[in-house]
Backbone:
């Protein structure tokens, strides 16, 4: 991308950051947008792990939580300024992700999902039980606001600017990484591990890195949540949340960054759009949403912005050849 | 009456027919959905009665429901929605779960919206310095002291087991019970907990309590798990020992689910369903006629909140801005008894009523809780 | 810790485990053939159990009501297969997973609309009380549940071993493509397997409801998690594996409470499962014939 286009993109983004809060009618919708933006790094992270690297993680909420608790505790107990706590959340969550991924490498992908669920459950048990650190189910109230060099985020518009920048940076970074050699390696691992190994890709390191990157972003999102909601309780990171994050990535489209942004916005925004005081609508809101999910999956199985992808021809024939040589069943062709 | 009300409040005159809107923020779906449903029902009965009596200051009362799903995130979103509509809502009745209230309050406080809470009992809520908040439900620390006092002083049982729900309500109670039992020189020999709405298998905990030889059980749960615990205890042979629980257990389902083992158990209620008050009796009768069940605590307090708003506006000329301060200065008598409030927004001078299950029904015992020894904890 | 206490915990673990086993078996059948994580399984069987309760409330004799409930579960299973699985069967595996999630949401939403969010008690068709066995005083209900579960699985395994249909199912479980090549009508068999899964699952869920005297809309999510854990533990490619897996899961939970405390019940049992999977990546009895490299 040329320098001029890049500069134009940045300017456009900055303009959006300044102008949008005024254009949105009322703080409620701005709040919904903020919540969506907080989930964007989560969705992108889940997409990196699942869409680009092919591992289904159903425990992202735990890393979300690790980020939130890290950030809240550092600012509240140790007086660390927000920016430092923010960075630390990402690093800690990313490190945790890498550690969790290590045992997952030798097992089948479904067992990996189970391990991520187990990790999520263990995170909940620990946060609920470790009263001295997390105050258990009673949580951490009055988490300080986002503060940068003397400026505090006091309104939804302020929060928007921060979450917008973070979401934008995450999206940009993810886009750069996934379109580079690292991303290519990930996609090869996803499409055919055996062939990837044959081509010299370090599969183990690739998977660990994918987990690390995805969970790093989840941790950053956690910090944003902690300081905008200003309350951290274990209930915010239950398994249901992990499933929602997974749905964001899949609904928007695997292996496409804009898809994750759209997925996050839709999964947060649609239930709010369906919110109403009509009694029947309130009871059936989850069901209507579920029906929408089923419909979208049937209509566009690749996700809303996903591309119907087939493996690149070189990889495909190499893969076939290798499998024939090793007397393995050929992989089913992607339609 | 409408004319008198109108002349007492000139600002209302021209808009007399415009409905007065209260936002009820409550979990309607999700694991706390049953509580939201009960609150909704209490509100419906109150609204019908208030409007039959001329509304509030001549304006019909209307409430709008907002589902916070029992999660802090949704509670904050709901709060944003409510305050986003400027002054559309006169007041907020909500939330139910303590963590939802904690998440939503900063937003209401910022916008100056008055909040009357029917059911969040976590002590820390009134310690955050919010000036626009009052609640009708008692604090968990005070409640825990009462339950422990009753078990140890009145029932004279010292070797106790505690079974508590693992959320902020149950854990908060558990921590306070530990303190109180300590001060009263009792002994907690067994502890069991469970994840609400997920864990329904309590046999392992019951076996532990039996093995530890508990003389009394502190049942710090909601009615569902309270009843299930007792039924499973009966199976395991853990019967014949006194059980004391808070009024979160005060609901028909508690007796139903206990399969006969609720007989003789004590519920310490923050309101007396058997009080002689005509108001209480007519409300409970109306509730039972319409919904075929005992009104739970959430229903009672939600109902009273709407009547409190009516009295504050009509008798004391409260406006949206002065509502909370007005209420704090009021003494109000409703279905749940007599209320008065501290400056922080907690109720004061309310006693717990000792109820017992006899013959498959809740009955009033009229026993007073022996509070000896608890002053040490109440110096603050 | 007395012997009586430990034995009581053991029996309790087995009873809960047999419920998990029944729920897991139905789940495992679908999973084994299609490698599909069926998120709708728990909600389907919850709905069938609540339907059974509704039938009892309408005056239908209890045993008939339970059978009808199982039929409802089977029908709903068929429905989920038709609507949320078949249209996306050729898509990458994550897609049917999400559509099953959506289907589960719809089912639980309708259940809440029909029956409300409250917990409801389930008629006690199995007598409660204690029996004396070999000098130990044990609760009767868990033993009865264990027996019923054993009978149900015994009947199911007879069907699998002795009938043509059963053999066809086992072929499909071992290798879908080969079965197709051999002329087995896979397209008719798969919906049947969904249906059987629903049927057995409702039986398990009803036993759960009776044992704990509680049935409620949210129990679907709980059932799915337990079913999946049981199936994983028992192993892929093996119908009986899920049954044993369920029993072991129940025992693991009881053990967790005895040795670690009730707070860690859910977490500890999951840790045990993860440990087993790390040592035996295909589960305890898994064969995973199609994935051997």
Residues:
């Amino acid at each position: 991308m040329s320098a001029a286009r890049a500069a134009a993109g940045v300017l456009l983004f900055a303009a959006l950051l300044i102008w949008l809060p005024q254009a949105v009618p009322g703080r409620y919708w701005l709040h919904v947008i903020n919540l969506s933006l907080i989930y964007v790094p989560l969705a992108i992270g889940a997409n990196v792990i699942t869409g680009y690297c092919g591992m289904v993680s159903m425990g992202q909420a735990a890393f979300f939580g690790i980020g939130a608790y890290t950030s809240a505790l550092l600012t509240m107990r140790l007086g660390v300024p927000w920016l430092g706590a923010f960075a630390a959340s990402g690093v800690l969550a990313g490190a945790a992700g890498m550690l969790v991924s290590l045992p997952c490498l030798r097992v089948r992908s479904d067992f990996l999902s189970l391990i991520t669920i187990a990790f999520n459950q263990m995170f909940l048990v620990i946060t609920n039980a470790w009263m001295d650190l997390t105050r258990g189910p009673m949580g951490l109230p009055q988490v300080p606001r986002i503060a940068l060099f003397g400026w505090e985020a006091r309104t939804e518009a302020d929060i928007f600017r921060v979450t917008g920048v973070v979401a934008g940076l995450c999206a940009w970074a993810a886009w750069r990484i996934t379109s580079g050699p690292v991303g290519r390696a990930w996609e090869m691992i996803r499409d055919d591990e055996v062939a990837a190994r044959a081509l010299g890709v370090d599969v183990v390191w690739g998977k660990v890195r994918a987990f690390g990157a995805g969970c790093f972003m989840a941790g950053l999102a956690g910090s944003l949540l902690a300081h905008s909601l200003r309350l951290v309780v274990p209930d915010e990171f239950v398994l249901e949340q992990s499933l929602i994050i997974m749905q964001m990535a899949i609904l928007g489209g695997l292996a496409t960054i804009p898809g994750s942004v759209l997925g996050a916005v839709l999964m947060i925004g649609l239930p709010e759009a369906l919110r109403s005081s009509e009694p029947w609508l309130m009871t059936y809101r989850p069901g209507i949403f579920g029906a929408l999910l089923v419909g979208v999956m049937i209509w566009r199985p690749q996700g809303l912005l996903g591309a119907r992808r087939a493996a690149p021809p070189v990889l495909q024939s190499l893969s076939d050849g290798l499998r024939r040589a090793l007397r393995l069943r050929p992989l089913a062709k992607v339609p | 009456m409408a004319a008198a009300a109108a002349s007492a409040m000139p600002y209302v005159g021209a808009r007399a027919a415009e409905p007065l809107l209260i936002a009820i923020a409550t979990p309607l779906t999700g694991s706390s959905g049953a509580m939201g449903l009960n609150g909704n029902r209490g509100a419906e009965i109150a609204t019908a009665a208030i409007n039959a009596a001329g509304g509030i200051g001549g304006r019909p009362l209307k409430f709008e429901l907002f589902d916070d799903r029992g999660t802090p995130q949704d509670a904050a979103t709901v709060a944003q929605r409510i305050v986003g509509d400027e002054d559309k809502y006169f007041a907020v009745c909500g939330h139910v779960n303590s963590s939802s209230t904690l998440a939503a309050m900063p937003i209401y406080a910022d916008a100056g919206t008055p909040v009357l809470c029917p059911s969040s009992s976590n002590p820390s809520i009134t310690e955050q310095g919010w000036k626009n908040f009052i609640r009708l439900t008692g604090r968990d620390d005070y409640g825990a002291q009462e339950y422990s006092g009753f078990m140890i002083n009145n029932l004279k049982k010292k070797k106790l087991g505690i079974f508590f729900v693992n959320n902020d309500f149950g854990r908060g109670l558990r921590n306070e019970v530990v303190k109180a039992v300590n001060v009263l020189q009792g002994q907690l020999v067994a502890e069991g907990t469970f994840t609400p709405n997920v864990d329904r298998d309590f046999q392992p905990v019951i076996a532990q309590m039996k093995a530890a030889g508990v003389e009394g059980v502190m049942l710090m749960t909601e009615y569902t798990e309270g009843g299930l615990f007792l039924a499973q205890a009966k199976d395991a042979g853990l019967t014949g020992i006194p059980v004391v629980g808070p009024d979160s257990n005060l609901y028909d389902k508690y007796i139903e689910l206990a399969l006969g083992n609720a007989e003789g158990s004590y519920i310490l209620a923050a309101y007396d369903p058997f009080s002689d008050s005509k108001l209480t009796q007519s409300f409970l009768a109306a509730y039972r006629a319409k919904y075929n069940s005992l009104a739970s605590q959430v229903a009672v307090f939600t109902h009273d909140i709407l009547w409190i708003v009516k009295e504050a506006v009509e008798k004391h000329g409260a406006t949206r801005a002065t509502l909370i301060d007005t209420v704090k200065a009021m003494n109000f008598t409703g279905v749940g008894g007599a209320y008065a409030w501290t400056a922080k927004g907690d109720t004061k001078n309310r006693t717990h009523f000792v109820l017992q299950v006899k013959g498959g029904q809740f009955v009033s015992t009229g026993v007073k809780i022996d509070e000896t020894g608890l002053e040490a904890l109440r110096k603050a | 810790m007395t012997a009586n206490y430990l034995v009581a915990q053991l029996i309790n673990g087995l009873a809960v485990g047999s419920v998990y086993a029944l729920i897991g078996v139905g789940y495992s059948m679908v999973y084994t053939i299609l490698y599909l994580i069926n998120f709708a399984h728990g909600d389907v069987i919850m709905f069938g159990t609540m339907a059974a309760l509704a039938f009892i409330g309408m005056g239908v004799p209890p045993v008939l009501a339970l059978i009808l409930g199982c039929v409802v579960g089977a029908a709903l299973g068929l429905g989920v297969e038709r609507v949320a699985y078949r249209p996306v069967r050729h898509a990458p595996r994550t897609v049917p997973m999400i559509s099953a999630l959506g289907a589960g949401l719809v089912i639980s939403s309708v259940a809440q609309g029909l029956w409300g969010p409250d917990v409801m008690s389930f008629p006690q068709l199995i007598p409660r009380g204690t029996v004396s066995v070999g000098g130990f005083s044990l609760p009767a209900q868990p033993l009865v549940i264990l027996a019923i579960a054993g009978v149900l699985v015994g009947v199911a395994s007879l069907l699998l071993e002795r009938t043509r249909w059963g053999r066809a199912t086992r072929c499909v479980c071992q290798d879908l493509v080969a079965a197709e090549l051999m002329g087995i009508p896979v397209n008719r068999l798969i919906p049947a397997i969904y249906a059987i899964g629903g049927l057995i699952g409702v039986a398990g869920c009803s036993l759960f409801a009776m044992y704990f005297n509680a049935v409620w809309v949210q129990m679907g999510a709980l059932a799915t998690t337990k079913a999946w854990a049981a199936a994983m533990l028992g192993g892929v490619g093996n119908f009986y594996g899920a049954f044993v897996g369920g029993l072991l899961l129940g025992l693991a939970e009881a053990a967790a409470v005895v040795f670690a405390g009730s707070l860690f019940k859910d977490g500890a049992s999951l840790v045990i499962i993860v440990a087993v999977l790390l040592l035996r990546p295909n589960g305890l009895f898994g064969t995973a014939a199609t994935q051997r490299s």
